DNA helicase RecQ (Hymenobacter mellowenesis), 748 residues
Amino acid sequence: MSDTLTTAPTNLLPAAQQALKRYYGYDNFRPMQGDIIQNILGGRDTVVLMPTGGGKSVCFQIPAVVSEGTCVVVSPLIALMKDQVEALKANGIAAAYINSSVGQNESNDIARAAVSGHLKLLYVSPEKLLSDGFLQFLNRVNISIFAIDEAHCISSWGHDFRPEYTQLGQLRNHFPNTPIIALTATADRLTKRDIITQLNMREPRVFLSSFDRPNINLIVRPGQDRVGSVIDYIGRHPQDPGIIYCLSRKTCETISQKLLAKGIKAAHYHAGMTPLQRGKVQEAFLQDDIQVIVATIAFGMGIDKSNVRWVMHYNLPKNIEGYYQEIGRAGRDGAPSTAILFYSFADVMQMREMVTKDVPARQAQLNTAKLERMQQFAEAASCRRKILLNYFSETLAEDCGNCDICRNPPTTFDGTLIAQKALSAVFRSREKVAINLLIDILRGMRNQAVLQGGFDQIKTYGAGRDLPYLDWYSYIHQMLNDGLFYIAYEEGYALKITERGHQVLKGELPLPLRKFQPSEKAEKPTRASKKAANAASTAAVGTPEAQLFDKLRKLRKAIADEQGVPPYVVFSDATLQEMAAERPVSRVGMLGVSGVGMKKFETYGEAFIKLILEHGGGGQYVPSDSDSMFNEPRPRLAKPEPADKPVSDSEDATIQFHQMGLTPEDISERRGLALSTVKTHLYNAYAKGRELRIHDFVSDSELAEILTARAQLGNDATLRDLFDHLREKYDYFQLRMAALYHKRLRGQ
Ligand code: ADP
Ligand code: ZN
């Protein structure tokens, strides 16, 4: 098996990896990126489903850079195109865009550059692409790849349906041999199917990345005194840019007024404003001249600002897709960020009316079902991130530790029996019933739907008589949230049992449920939830690191203003934070910072080094936390370092020896333990978030080799496959440590 794999076509991944370092300043691909790039460079159609901030751009930009010719990127949003092209140029990559905002002369220049092969990436709007003569023009360009960004716009199931997108199927007919990569942050099954069929993709490989955004702290707050809470929060984060989403234009304006009255740099943004007014507000926000935008959901689609530190929902969003997309606008740079949702039951009622008014019955039903999931999220008493991920068909093995519930867990009881009753009823009714009918069956109701379906004949009919309707409603939603079943929307909302559900049904897994509480009671603010919100702040104010970060941020702003680009195009917050922590004052040091590529070093390096020197940087930096001193170089986490989970005493002893510089062999001898035990200790501690000198076990180039091998083998490969594939060069301990390292890099 390994033979066939090693004779795979020329491996371009090393070239891609070099380009990543050179142009973007990043040391490693996030694992999914490596796979994707390999696939597209192999000339195969590729579908990428990855959350906002996951790093989709790199997936087509790097192949574009290392391939001959020009990658044509179809993107629906003019503002976004401009930002992406600016960011590419800042990284030293030749790129341009053509859309309705570009004049004829400039378009002609760009077209010439494309034909003569001087562009690595050409962004076009779908309207432009399909306009008269454009495809003929493209015939004269040597096209390396078609990248379809925001590909969910093709699906009428989705929230951003764009009719022009459905014409993109023509690309395959005109350019049968050019590979297509479609990218979206929507993971919906139906959307995925539409993308593949409508683009006429040929046996595409689909990459579904984790939708987790671990750097976003998820918080739900009770709906009382929202304005007070907002002002209080901003007061505690005076430098952090954020977005407040509201339902109505009126609310946007009122809140923005109230914030302005408190001296906060805020502005409102909604579809009732002229394009000019909106453009101004957006520009000022991008430039960090406005701290807070109070917007209807219209805002954000077209912006790429990576240093949005928090997003608030003043009102309940109408579904989880929308909520997730909106909170995804926070923390795209991977640095700690916060999402706060204000919630009261009245919001649900208001929203229910809105989503069912003036729409066909079928749509109203769908909207209501989706709203109910949103409500369940807001009322949840188990890890919120689990619920979110579950909604996108993902399971998280452990609670996240970065949501309000994880910080303040509610009480639960053993609900296995209750769950089994519900699961059994679903099973016996052949997975054809929706929630309401299921509850009727469980409670032994004799209504038409029950009798017509013959459900009064099944064994579990009436098995749940003892519980009132609302209790069942809550428990079944908890089971949904826990991934025991899912809703097949296209089959009349029937509940389908998952693998996990079957395990509970068979008694192989217990199921804790939380006691049902009427909403008012559940939404009383707790001390702990207040504490959690406080803990969500990004940097400890007043520390030398925070002071330097502040200075760096000011320098970035000055440079950005001078050059007329948004500050995050100069450097991301994450990059500045790393500079503040490591204080590089040499070329090598600066290039070692994640996000500093060659071009950016040449353009900005000196100014930043000078500032760090003035601040008293340059090697004298003494790390304040005990972890940093034995970890060199520090793994570049894409998320806040997880609060360490406790390690056992014995593991701790091993770690202490490791910190003193002992090898696993030495430790094994010193402690009189088997070498394998010592390695297990190290592995466990690393898995629990402890920092180890990973390079004692695997060097950077070895890590890259292992990563490449994993990319080649694909997701389903076992450790054993990897071991064989690498011809036993590494032992299992090294492979496992490397896997953890890569996982952490990805910020999982
Ligand atoms: P998306 O398009 O999926 O929303 P982006 O492509 O904008 O995400 O990437 C989000 C952020 O992550 C950007 O700041 C990007 O530069 C950064 N990023 C992407 N790939 C990597 C990587 N391999 N290492 C470090 N940072 C990365
Ligand atoms: Zn959690």
Remarks:
- Confidence is low (pLDDT under 50) at residues 1-9, 517-539, 619-643.
